[in-house]
């Protein structure tokens, strides 16, 4: 690879999306997965990536618009009463707006990419087709910086290594540009994971030199402004956890804004952010339709509260409660709230808490519960409560206002209250002690979703009302599911039951 010293080429490739479509699939239209001899239509939706097979990121080379798992999903939902499952194939290339990459190799030959499956070898992926094109340009720029400032990465095991990982996140929300220009001109927030305790460590000079290089060659003074900001994360642990607890903003804009689900959203580098910004926006717009106007919503596994706050705006929710275990997301939530339109009149709160501990305390008082758990699925204690929701409802209705509200002593509830952010509505609403009638499940883990879904259906407390798939990760085995459950057994189960009853007199 050619490395120039002071004037890196920052060309921004423009990708034409030729295979973007929203399709409604029926079981009759199931097509065969992964063709051995791909036909022309498969080729038009092919990955065409030079890193395929050596890189562990993508596993499907053809038919990116049709992930293999979709066929199974259609059959699954059809069997459980959803005949109109839809699948949005979304953007097929250049979709990844957030990437965490390992940095290894040597200063003269840096490698920035993913681990080879089952090893600690890094595969360099300069031409990744999944990345937003500007992530690849920023990776190239970083390599030039590493080349210029020696000993930042290791040559041999014995040499100290400073840069461990890099997170590249793209914001595509630049209001100074016309809307069609914004995506391809996305700017990159670069977070360097630095192998030292803090910014006071001895090697800070090198960190600053690298940050200054990125800013001087990718910042606002360049013809193409590529770098949004540079951050440092300090991580000295040698386990596989990428980020340490300490973050420092070094250069550029501190706040990172994106426009998702109809609102401006702030996302700090330490907070969870969806990798596929555009697909997430499509999912949210679909999700909004399943929430009644003025509803009370609890958003569990909420991150920075993007789902809940977008509902505050689009569905004029009476109240939205967000519950999240990562305290780093709190600040982003607060900033997003500050930018909500001034006419929003809702009780809004964010709680630093573990949704698996006493989940009923979060469900109480909401019409709709939204869950968006990590890949491993819902916590067993939450599934258990959802499976017994009628019994809990009976108990709640028969008892008066619980004493615990007055005299709370449970330490985890007190901690969650202390760390909470609360914005009160100007309208006084009667206290609501109801439990949700609608459960909206967003899943990035198909296997865990099936398990949770079957468990909920088996309880007869919930039935599947609608389901949609989104191509959040083209080229992989994963899809994102938006499933809407309603309380009770549902029309299809009831029909079968009434059919049996009619036969009884014979
Ligand atoms: C898939 S992310 C979804 C975040 C958010 N809904 C969004 O779309 O930006 C899952 C989130 O759940 C959080 N989480 C994981 N386990 C949790 C738990 N037991 N209680 C609360 N939050 C949890 C993670 O920190 C992460 O932010």
From TrEMBL:
Q: Which UniProt keywords apply?
A: Methyltransferase, S-adenosyl-L-methionine, Transferase
* Pfam (any one): Cons_hypoth95
Annotated InterPro entries: RNA_M5U_MTase, SAM-dependent_MTases_sf, U5_MeTrfase_fam
- Which PROSITE patterns does the record match to this protein? SAM_MT_RNA_M5U (PS51687)
The GO molecular function terms of this record are: RNA methyltransferase activity
Q: List the catalytic residues.
A: 444
GO BP: methylation; RNA processing
Which positions are annotated as binding S-adenosyl-L-methionine? 274, 301, 324, 372
Q: Which family does it belong to?
A: Belongs to the class I-like SAM-binding methyltransferase superfamily. RNA M5U methyltransferase family.
This one is known as Methyltransferase small domain-containing protein
